[in-house]
């Protein structure tokens, strides 16, 4: 049975997009890396046979290109894709908290984003999601365009916080004019997000406006 013969909602790629990678089995995840099967078996069947051949995922990480290409249906390209993914996973596991950027002040937050944001021709609303040690877990652009309280919805801001189990958030946006003086809309958006954060239990630590080599912290200005 080929992948195209499965109902669309049961195909690994579609389920990955709809439900996330955690919804897929090891066999299905491996099938996504392999991409294609052989003339005699589907990619899912090939993935299942590969897992059985190496006695499970634990030994897959120790396999060599030569060992994988010795399995019928696994060529050099497929073997390299698999082992490259294994190596990326290994390197990610070696990352530790010391590698993460720590924000101790508004200046730290501004410096983290200044070079990326000060030349932007449109306003970008960005959130930094922090853990309990004020280390950056994730940087996400929430919205592009003129800041408006009705457009920057708290749902979008806090959705990523829940996903990352963030303890707090720092919001930033740029003023393409280069002048970081906060507008009335900037202040209204900030107050709305701070209030939502208090209700949810995820603190909004600051809202920093980025200008041309300068910034304004709404926390320092007393708006938080």
Give descriptors for this structure.
224 residues, alpha+beta, five-stranded mixed beta sheet, 9 helices, 43% helix, elongated
Low-confidence stretches: none
Q: Which structural class is indicated by helix and strand composition?
A: alpha+beta
Strand line-up in the sheet with most strands: 2-1-3-4-5
Largest sheet: 5 strands, mixed
Structural Rg: 23 Å
Q: Roughly what fraction of the amino acids lie in strands? A: 15-25%
> What is the 3D form?
elongated
Percent helix, as a range, is 40-55%
By DSSP, the count of extended strands is 5
Discrete helix count: 9
Distance between the termini: 59 Å
Give the ordered list of helices and strands.
Answer: HHHHHHHEEHEHEE
Mean pLDDT score: 88
Description:
The protein is α+β, with helices and mostly antiparallel strands. The chain has nine helices and five strands, in the order H-H-H-H-H-H-H-E-E-H-E-H-E-E. It has helices at residues 12-19, 26-34, 43-53, 57-60, 65-69, 76-94, 106-117, 154-164, 184-200; strands at 124-130, 136-144, 168-174, 203-210, 215-217. Strands 2-1-3-4-5 form a five-stranded mixed sheet, with helices on both faces. Strand 1 (124-130) and strand 2 form a beta hairpin. Helix 2 (26-34) packs across helix 3. The radius of gyration is 23 Å and the shape is elongated. The termini are far apart.
Question: Brief description of this entry?
Answer:
The chain is built from nine helices and five strands.
Helix and strand arrangement:
Blueprint: H1 12-19, H2 26-34, H3 43-53, H4 57-60, H5 65-69, H6 76-94, H7 106-117, E1 124-130, E2 136-144, H8 154-164, E3 168-174, H9 184-200, E4 203-210, E5 215-217
Parallel strand pairs: 3-4
Antiparallel strand pairs: 1-2, 1-3, 4-5
Helix pairs in contact: 2-3
